[in-house]
Batch of 2 targets.
Target 1
Amino acid sequence: MYKIEAIIRPHRLEAVRNALKEHDLIAITVSDCRGAGRQAAPTHTFRGSQYSHGLELRLRIEVFVNDSHLEVALDAIQEAACTGEVGDGKILVFKAEQAVRIRTNERGETAVH
Ligand SMILES: Nc1ncnc2c1ncn2[C@@H]1O[C@H](COP(=O)(O)OP(=O)(O)OP(=O)(O)O)[C@@H](O)[C@H]1O
Ligand SMILES: [Mg+2]
């Protein structure tokens, strides 16, 4: 079991969700966040209330997957989130020790998917 955490451009969320759904991956957690990558944010993005302190608005998505779904999920997220421009974001993978479905107390892979 793995936790995939990705920082993506907000406008790519719908495409990412659709790509994951093609592999029957429906469940997802999404949080608003701000961040900076290697480059300073272009000045034209500093407007309105969307940006502050040189940090760009991003979304953090978390998807818990079984081993068999890891590679397809990574490809789906990478392809759907990619515009080819700097600032597209990052994907990190964390090995999960255990998972519990709270409603049923199921454990392990059956709790994830
Ligand atoms: N090393 C990092 N640590 C924490 N967050 C990061 C890191 N790299 C990227 N991020 C997050 O991802 C967002 C987008 O990063 P970005 O894609 O600009 O990374 P990059 O390494 O500069 O790649 P690129 O050269 O493609 O722009 C950042 O705003 C930040 O939220
Ligand atoms: Mg960058």
Target 2
Amino acid sequence: MSAVLQPIKSAAAATWALSVRGVAKRYASAGGSVEAIQDISFDVAGSEFVSVLGPSGCGKTSMLRIVGALQSASAGEVEIGGVPLGRSEQDTGRAVQDLAFAFQEPRLFPWFTIEDNIALPLRVRGVPRDERLARARELCALVGLSGFEQSWPRQLSGGMRQRASLARALVIKPRILLLDEPFGALDAMTRDQMNLELQRICAATGATVLLITHSIAEAVMLSDRVVVLSPRPSRVQAIHTIDLPRPRAIDMQAGAEFQRHVRAIRQDIAGYPA
Ligand SMILES: Nc1ncnc2c1ncn2[C@@H]1O[C@H](COP(=O)(O)OP(=O)(O)OP(=O)(O)O)[C@@H](O)[C@H]1O
Ligand SMILES: [Mg+2]
């Protein structure tokens, strides 16, 4: 199966929001070294939603951390808005200001209220308290947590904590959102709800999203394109364009077009070398 690197916006859109070019990652270990990523390349356009699917241990988290400048690649390059990461400290610092992360677990601070947790990235940036709390309350409304601003993380359900974590990622109005299986721990119904909310938030904010997921249905539901990675050491196995109309509803998942995309992706995964 060939990996097709299609430009999805006009060819004149020279600068991608995010560009991953020939990225490789090798970890040194006691018994030698582990090649996690062999060669990953893909682009993400502004306001595009791209999901990455691949088997456990194929290097998805490693790739996302490299994209977010949390660790370096062994080879290749990442560009954020046309700026290559890691060449100049100043440019890298500026480029990552546009990025926000949300992880598989909510990572809220238990000693801060929900609104203080959400406002934390603004506090780090020196935004005055009144302003940052006003913004945190807006975000609570956006993710359906109005009324829980003063609650403590332990008083919220898992799904609500995950929404608070998403709100904290969104509070800086990131141009690029990096999501590492943020809904993996949720039950199916809460996950459907979160998918709808994420879709609504992306439409409202125009954020560019790179989502790692293990769910083919979630990837098809949310994405403009889906990147399928091979087992470790990973390469791009295929890139699927999901041309379903938006906004997408949960009951679309039973439709023939949706199922056609799911089957095509499943076939790529089944085609992994043994
Ligand atoms: N800091 C590290 N030091 C050494 N090896 C590492 C390190 N981080 C990851 N690895 C190895 O790199 C490979 C890829 O790990 P990574 O966490 O990126 O995979 P993943 O695709 O996110 O997996 P999962 O789907 O289970 O989350 C694994 O073999 C892992 O053991
Ligand atoms: Mg991972």
